[in-house]
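Box 3.1 A note on notation
Throughout this textbook, protein chains are presented in two layers. The first layer is the amino acid sequence; the second is a token string describing backbone geometry. Keep the layers aligned when reading.
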Amino acid sequence: MCFADEAGQGHRPPKGRSWSRRGHRPQVRVHGGDHGGRVSVAGMVCYRPGERSRLIYRLHHYRRRTGERAAFTLAEYKSMLQAAHQQLPGGKLVLIWDNLGIHHSMAMRAFIDAHTDWLRVFYLPAYAPDLNPAESIWSLLKRSMANFLATDLDHLTRMIKHRLKAIQHHPEVIDACLTTTGLTLTTTPAITN
């Protein structure tokens, strides 16, 4: 069972709390505002009873160039789903994600219908991010990057990859993200044709 979601980080760091000497306010100087672009992350948090939890993700760079797409494309979503199909034991995927427009597009529906032998999709209720463990992953990522100053988009990308890989190496953290939703896994769902 995989929960999918998207998040993004611009060049401007998320605000966080910090310590400093009394009378000296901590400052993080950001040059260039948000003109440096944005890194978007699409991720899947995957669980199967008795097996190690996994985080599978893809990055999308938006450098604010003319004609450049700011969000993930259908091809990028398909690539991530096919990678999950290859990487996960058993290869069958029960995907749960939100109601983003591209998730309901005719092209995505055609892709899902063409792969019913290994892919089954369910949608979360509207306005229910608290039911998606991937939201907790993004919260961890953004908190770990509070007050982090990236020199450019490539530096930001390296930091995001580094932080996500650290989460990947700790399945207990991924398990805790499921626990925060109040959901539990009891059996492996069967995919029938």
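The first strand starts at residue 2 and ends at 10. Strands lie at 2-10, 38-46, 54-62, 93-97, 119-123.
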